[in-house]
Specification:
This protein is mainly alpha-helical. Helices cover 78% and strands 0% of the residues. The protein is globular. The termini are far apart. Bound molecules: 5-(aminomethyl)-2-methylpyrimidin-4-amine. Pathway: Cofactor biosynthesis; thiamine diphosphate biosynthesis.
């Protein structure tokens, strides 16, 4: 099996995530300010726990060459996505100090601890599958939004966010992650017990991504 099989098996849920109302409103610039602020702040906490999960993936590797994959993803997350995120928060009047003092919302706790729990109790492949909807979904959103007729570049307060995920660095991280995961799953059959377990994990993480958008919308 491969990444494409996981997406195909969960197609409607995947579409609900990548084409969510929150995403569309980022595209046309109509997302309420309060929803975006809540999302941004919670996403800072999310990224911190995802960095821990990639570090856990390094720990679970048994060779230097295998460690290189999660290390590249972790470096991308720390040096690219998180630093852009902090700069972006500052543009929105949210300081690093504010970010350190926030309370985690329930959707943030649920998603991040689910992934860390899979990482602690499961295999490296299971952890990689739990991490996959994050990078792959946002890369798809970054590629999809600029092509939609409703997406506005002029006077859109969210255009820098879209550009970050549409940009080459993030797109390449998602390509690398797909390649690694395809390699890790190539001997696993989708209808084996292990294949079904991986599908369940992918599905749960995708559901958590939808809940993360909803968490933002609920703060309007
Ligand atoms: C909730 C969430 N999911 C995914 C991503 C993209 N790394 C993110 N920043 N935040």
């Amino acid at each position: 099996m491969n990444v494409s099989d996981l997406i195909t098996a969960n197609q409607s849920l995947w579409q609900e995530y990548t084409q969510h109302r929150f995403v569309r409103q980022l595209g046309d610039g109509t997302l309420p300010d309060s929803a975006f602020r809540h999302y941004l702040i919670q996403d800072y906490l999310f990224l911190k726990h995802f960095a821990r999960a990639y570090a856990l993936a390094i720990y679970k590797c048994d060779s230097f060459s295998a460690m290189q994959r999660p290390l590249t993803a972790l470096t991308g997350l720390l040096e690219h996505e998180t630093s852009l995120h902090v700069a972006y928060c500052q543009e929105w009047g949210i300081s690093e100090q504010d970010l350190e003092n926030i309370e985690e919302d329930s959707g943030t706790v649920a998603y991040t601890r689910l992934v860390l729990d899979i990482g602690q109790s499961g295999s490296l492949t299971e952890l990689y599958v739990a991490l996959a909807p994050c990078a792959l979904g946002y890369a798809e959103i970054g590629a999809w939004l600029p092509k939609q007729s409703f997406t506005a570049r002029a006077n859109n307060p969210y255009i820098a966010w879209i550009d970050m995920y549409a940009g080459e660095t993030f797109q390449q991280l998602a390509v690398d992650e797909t390649r690694s995961l395809d390699e890790m799953m190539k001997e696993i059959s989708a209808d084996s017990q292990q294949g079904r377990k991986l599908n369940r994990i992918f599905r749960d993480a995708t559901r958590m991504e939808i809940a993360f958008w909803e968490q933002g919308l609920n703060k309007q």
